[in-house]
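Lab notebook, design round three. We kept the backbone fixed and only want residue identities now. Task for the bench partner: fill in a sequence for the structure below.
Input structure tokens:
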């Protein structure tokens, strides 16, 4: 007996296939950041990306995550079997406005990481500029993936004896909003930001309705362009399952139900302007 697939079923199935492939593509480049105070057990406070810019290797995260260095030791998680690696050295981050970090609309921080610490992270990879979106395509019918390490899904994964962590990468998929009211409320033009719709309910990989996880901990993780799902090329032949880094998540605007991301071009510009000489 023939089995017919509806357009909605095809969209959901294809979106799942692409998001799974893209998450696998970037998994080793997306790491968790943990904080420890006074020798206490480390806890996940955010996410970060490993990026290569003009031949130099960097750990990139949100500035409000890096601010924790004022009172905590910060660590980055490696791949399976690797120990936590402490973040040390010169940190560069956006300066908070007079009213405080919460008013910082760019919220970017980065460290240059040396070869020894890279080896300590295990089998990691660095995101190249060729793997990043130019953010020029119309956003209609495009889906985006926010990936990272929300605290709610990782709070029991730290092994304090071996100082290692079995991280669980989470992903959330939705479309961007171009509603000018969102940028207005955030106090920006929108030229340097992307706004991902963040719904109370989402779907599991099997199409079942679920309550969306708390995004606390996604800050510093990537927002990835999955492509145009209204294109026939996404469903026939040998479609492309490649994603491109479009930005970095920095916060949630609850009133507008969106996640805010700073565009990846802003990050490259900051590193090239303020990075190591």
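Proposed sequence:
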């Amino acid at each position: 007996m023939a089995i017919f697939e509806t357009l909605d079923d095809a969209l959901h199935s294809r979106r799942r296939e692409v998001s799974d492939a893209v998450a696998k593509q970037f998994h080793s480049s997306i790491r968790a950041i943990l904080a420890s105070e006074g020798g206490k057990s480390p806890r996940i406070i955010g996410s970060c990306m490993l990026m290569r810019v003009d031949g130099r290797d960097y750990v990139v995260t949100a500035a409000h995550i890096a601010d924790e260095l004022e009172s905590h030791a910060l660590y980055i998680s490696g791949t399976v079997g690797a120990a936590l690696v402490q973040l040390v050295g010169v940190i560069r981050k956006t300066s908070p406005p007079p009213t405080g970090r919460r008013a910082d609309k760019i919220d970017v921080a980065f460290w240059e990481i040396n070869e020894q610490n890279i080896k300590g992270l295990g089998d990691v990879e660095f995101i190249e500029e060729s793997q990043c979106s130019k953010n020029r395509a119309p956003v209609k019918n495009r889906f985006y993936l926010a990936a990272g390490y929300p605290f709610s899904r990782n709070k029991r994964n730290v092994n304090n004896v071996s100082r290692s962590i079995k991280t669980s990468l989470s992903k959330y998929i939705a479309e961007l909003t171009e509603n000018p009211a969102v940028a207005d409320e955030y106090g920006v033009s929108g030229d340097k930001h992307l706004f991902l719709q963040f719904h109370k309910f989402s779907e599991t990989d099997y199409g079942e309705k679920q309550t969306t996880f708390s995004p606390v901990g996604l800050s510093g993780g990537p927002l990835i362009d999955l492509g145009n799902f209204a294109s026939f090329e996404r469903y026939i032949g040998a479609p492309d399952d490649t994603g491109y880094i479009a930005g970095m998540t920095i916060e949630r605007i609850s009133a507008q139900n969106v996640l805010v991301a700073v565009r990846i071009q802003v990050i490259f510009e900051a590193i090239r302007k303020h990075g190591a000489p």
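Keep this in mind before ordering anything: The radius of gyration is 19 Å.
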